[in-house]
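Quiz preparation item.
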């Protein structure tokens, strides 16, 4: 077995189901969910709401906040599960630098499915017009260490959470007794 996974990031483009899978996984594993979207500064939300994609500079402070929250939750003895698009390798490396043993569950889906899902999300700041920019930015993590890729187009939230939970158990997850 490779390095034990102490925490997870549920990652992928908008609409892949990060929040739903994270919530279901936390229920299965007793982990603590961290909703990455809630750490975006107002300027990022305004920019995305206006249909303007974020760039690396926009994401820098957000990623720093996520790193700090991962460390904070881990320091309390809880097992964090973070939802974060983590679209680029450099973003994933930044998160890994905050918490060694960080695993990634990549929820893959097609551009068409992502656009359809995002267009049907009420009350979310991310418009479907930004889907193309998400796919343009995405550097697939398939093949990276401590990464599990799952097909989010054909599996239910419960199936995805169960697969992630099983994988995490095989990579060091210790259930509370």
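Solution:
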């Amino acid at each position: 077995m490779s390095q034990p996974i102490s925490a997870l990031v549920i990652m992928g483009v908008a609409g892949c189901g990060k929040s739903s899978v994270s919530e279901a996984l936390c229920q299965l594993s007793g982990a603590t969910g961290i909703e990455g979207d809630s750490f975006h500064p107002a300027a990022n939300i305004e920019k995305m709401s206006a249909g303007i994609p974020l760039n690396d500079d926009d994401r820098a402070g957000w990623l720093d906040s996520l790193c700090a929250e991962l460390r904070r939750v881990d320091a309390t003895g809880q097992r964090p599960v973070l939802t974060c698009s983590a679209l680029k390798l450099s973003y994933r490396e930044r998160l890994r630098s905050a918490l060694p043993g960080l695993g990634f569950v990549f929820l893959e889906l097609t551009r068409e499915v992502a656009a359809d899902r995002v267009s049907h999300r009420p009350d979310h700041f991310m418009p479907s017009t930004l889907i193309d920019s998400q796919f343009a930015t995405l550097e697939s993590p398939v093949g990276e260490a401590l990464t599990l890729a799952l097909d989010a187009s054909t599996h239910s939230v419960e199936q995805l959470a169960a697969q992630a939970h099983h994988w995490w158990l095989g990579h060091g997850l210790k259930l509370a007794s």
